[in-house]
């Protein structure tokens, strides 16, 4: 008898450790295996050895749009943070709307972090999308935020896979390939 995959999988690692890359690779693998996949991946871009911007990939439609870009403060050259585009946030919220995730086998959310913990970003959508039945959630969460994210959204029955673990992708494929 085959067992069901856990209800929640967290892909974790430190900053810029390949969490989103691993999540995107897993999503594409699951789509190739004919699973219904929805949710979002933040595709990072680099310029001058720094993260310069993010595009949002809607896994249901396979469309991308600008999500955020680095901004510089007007009085100095130091790069201080990211400016989020309203259109990118709206696209993410649409992709994570429970009715757009209803018949999915897997829902990806990249990334849940400080913004969500503080009530911004995707935070308002996390509880409603957790109520989508018979769906496995795959969340990307930085290592330092796992406890707080699990506590805030009462996430249990969770497999945690770190980007620095040996054979992380193989392990994720194995966890996800168990029949639902």
What does this structure look like?
The protein is an alpha/beta fold. The protein contains seven helices and eight strands; from the N terminus they run E-H-E-E-E-E-H-H-E-H-H-E-H-E-H. It has helices at residues 19-32, 86-95, 98-101, 114-117, 123-130, 146-152, 168-177, and strands at 8-13, 37-47, 50-58, 63-72, 79-84, 106-112, 136-142, 158-162. It has an eight-stranded mixed sheet with strand order 5-4-3-2-6-7-1-8. Strand 4 and strand 5 (79-84) form a beta hairpin. Helix 1 (19-32) packs across helix 7 (168-177).
Question: What is the secondary structure topology, with strand pairs?
Answer:
Blueprint: E1 8-13, H1 19-32, E2 37-47, E3 50-58, E4 63-72, E5 79-84, H2 86-95, H3 98-101, E6 106-112, H4 114-117, H5 123-130, E7 136-142, H6 146-152, E8 158-162, H7 168-177
Parallel strand pairs: 1-7, 1-8, 2-6, 6-7
Antiparallel strand pairs: 2-3, 3-4, 4-5
Helix pairs in contact: 1-7
Q: What's the helix count?
A: 7
Share of residues in strands? 25-35%
As laid out across the biggest beta sheet, the strand order is 5-4-3-2-6-7-1-8
Radius of gyration: 16 Å
What quaternary form is this? single chain
Helix/strand class: alpha/beta
**Overall geometric form:** globular
Low-pLDDT runs: none
Major sheet characteristics: 8 strands, mixed
DSSP, total strands: 8
What is the CA–CA distance across the termini?
A: 11 Å
What string, H for helix and E for strand, traces the elements in order?
Answer: EHEEEEHHEHHEHEH
